[in-house]
């Protein structure tokens, strides 16, 4: 169905969406696309056909929600259906981005409007404000909404449910609006706080879930070439720490640990005083160097938990790359300027806390290090969204992750689409690690509170890093490798410009080569045994079991089989009892068999 103006002329780019390349335009600056991508045209056509009062568009980060929203605003103004525009954004930085993008399509927004001004200047078409700004004086913003037929654009509308007072303020301020356009890149929250102006309908189980008017998920955007595929570079390692009770503990990231041990091991890994973070940052910088051979202006971003570690990470990175690192610590004017300078430049690295995780547009970001304790599905999706904006075909995003179950689950479900549920389902949080939102932060708060009152303080003692695997398109590639080794570089050194099928094929090839190298080393060790200190049998058995379980997990994922079935097949072919009672020789036979099978794939 085509859409016509009152004069009968067809609007350019709003009909026959199938005639547009899905990824067109290839390099549109933020919010300035003169023509629309296919999904934008399709959604615009739907909107203009219905002209609803409320419309919720969910589009994956990097897909172009701003261009879509500004095109709607321009169309409504051209049809004299609205008099003014209010954009509500999560941060001050995003207000300015909205104003800059709007200016490029002839819409004048005032991002400097303050509640104290009382009214807007006549030479603007509207204002850009933050959710916090509206929450402080909702009555004022209601008056502004009533001053003319107002289109309200609620950017990342899930923030409307951040607190009850925010939701109430947004309803009060914008209930009289002529039109409300809600946008989100992550149409779900992990809590049950209702989002203003979003409709909820019961599903088959009676759980009230949000209803999206138009949805453009990551999977579809990836198939269209609108966003980059993501390579997750996963790192494990051995952690040691002292508890508040004075006990020394140790664990490996990625092992089957309890939740409290996992959170402490994760916290230890993120400490800048250990070896885990420097090793991962060196690997990430090496990956960035490889990407920059094909994409000279590619940049990297480290997302840190707090300001103290952000500064420490920046110092480590600067010593690694020999170049000044941009540090963004809070949502202040100078922080916005630093982001804009980094976005427009060609420098290598930026380290930030939270503000860059959502909505901030730096298209040249191609490599990321997820060095934060935040583990909510919403935060993870928004953070990964900083790296997926495609500028040309063949670009890939590379994100370095600690091997923590909650992050592995979220990485594996990147293409999963969620709706926001107002009611808890039976068992929520029990079998879905991605919904266990506050685990690490709560544990850290508990530890710090105990530190203040107790005789001992929690302390990270030591950490080291090992390359664990690459996760790409839901499949695992590779296994254990030492940082700086050829085996590690096989995976972090793949070219920066490849089509998704080429990435998968190259990863399979590198995995087979890694298996062959391991076999050659074992043969050499047998032929030329070296004198070594005797190792306790229980340590050798533990290492063998750990390696076997890692290979079983890799093989099971590739073949789509349960772990128990793979273990049973190994026992049938190689003989011997279950893993817990197998000897070193029996375990090694199973390891060798799995390596041959993996190497032949």
Automatic annotation (TrEMBL):
Pfam families: Helicase_C, ResIII. The keyword Transit peptide does not apply. The keyword ATP-binding applies. Residues 46-205 form the Helicase ATP-binding domain. Residues 419-438 are annotated as: Disordered. GO terms for molecular function: helicase activity. Keywords: ATP-binding, Helicase, Hydrolase, Nucleotide-binding. Residues 428-438 have a biased composition (Acidic residues). This is DEAD/DEAH box helicase. It comes from Agromyces larvae.
